[in-house]
Design goal:
This protein is an alpha/beta fold and 447 residues long. Helices cover 45% and strands 20% of the residues. One of its GO terms (molecular function) is ribosome binding.
Amino acid sequence: MNNEEYKALDEFELEPENWEQAERTEKTAFLAALANSRETDKDIKESLNELERLAETAGIQVLGTYHQRRNAPERGTYFGKGFLTELSRKMMQAQADILIVNDELGPSQAYNIERDYQIKVMDRTEVILDIFHKHAKTRESKLQVHLAELEYQLPRLKRMWEHFDKERGGVRNTGGTATRGMGEKQIEIDRRLIKDKIRKINKAIETIQHQKETQRKQREKAKKICLVGYTNAGKSTLFNQLTNAGVLVEDKLFATLDSTSRQLKLSTGNPVVLSDTVGFISKLPHHLIASFKATLMEVQDANLLLHIVDVSDERFEYYIQQVNSVLQQIGAETIPQILVFNKIDNVDSILVSLLESRFPEGVFISAIQGINIDKLLAKMEEILLGNRILQLKIPYDKTALVSKMHDIAEIISEDYKEDGIYLKVEISRDDRFLVEDYVLENEEGKN
């Protein structure tokens, strides 16, 4: 990294005392969602269950869940007046600290709810940002999370400072001339400060991207495999199983924020780079997708995606759609992928058999128990390297080639006969030219 790059990284420093977030004072919450006519009661329940997991990961206990059926949100307050009035009463009775809305509220909607119904409110995006903030460990992930937070805050400055103006009397009239409130003046100052921080963080992230691009060019001969999937599908567990990397595994949403890469040697000896990435989720805030472009670059640059699916979750097909939607947003939808159905140890074998019929190209594994990992590796090699199983007859004056096969191919069988050395090997597309003259054509088969 040259001096200019170091300067770009140093221009914006995250002070530890500013980064470490104070413990959230809100400990209990009600959850609320809007449901349109196309959503079933089951859809609503499962969506609110996911929001409850997000709230619990953020350290907030859920006291109740509610929904209102409307074809479109109320422009000013998202929910209707009657629903919010009743919700305010129930929250007061239950002594719930905060209302969490299962959507991203507009800049004025949260303020209007708080002002008109005396309900403290946060939206789904704030909860996810809060979790990301707590889980960010490296400088890169902290920069990316902080950028997303600032992008979220920028259009919402008015909400923060209208409280101040209300307390101070708001817009005042002095001698017939209207003067702006303190909050309005402070909004302009804060907006400039935030935009300046955003500019500096973007510059630092661009430097990180440049570093990653340089690293990518240095290892571009190696094939690249990326693990993607819905959050908590078991990506890090599989990553550890394949590489013995010892990456932190927790039963929490977004336990992994930083992309981790390790070299993985296939049976043919071909090295590949395997990367674990941040989990996806439905309604993933666009601020986060934009901010995590340096991390998601690993996905865009992959030769193969392992799309990890938690088969024990009833909504796994919906999650597959959500992951593919994010892949499309980041321009990675055309990269070959293997559907890897994980956690088969948690479901009935009959269900696994039915799903194998429905998804014949999928691979069904248990990452934690190591079940069918060999099948997954074989599938990876088949797609990534175009592996084929070949029957070879190599003359004795070419024993150096036999040694080469032991280095670059998987030897399935080896037999020394009078007329030559008979090998059955699994070999990659790129190395097949070495043995073209020794293939027994009538016995050649595909993997």
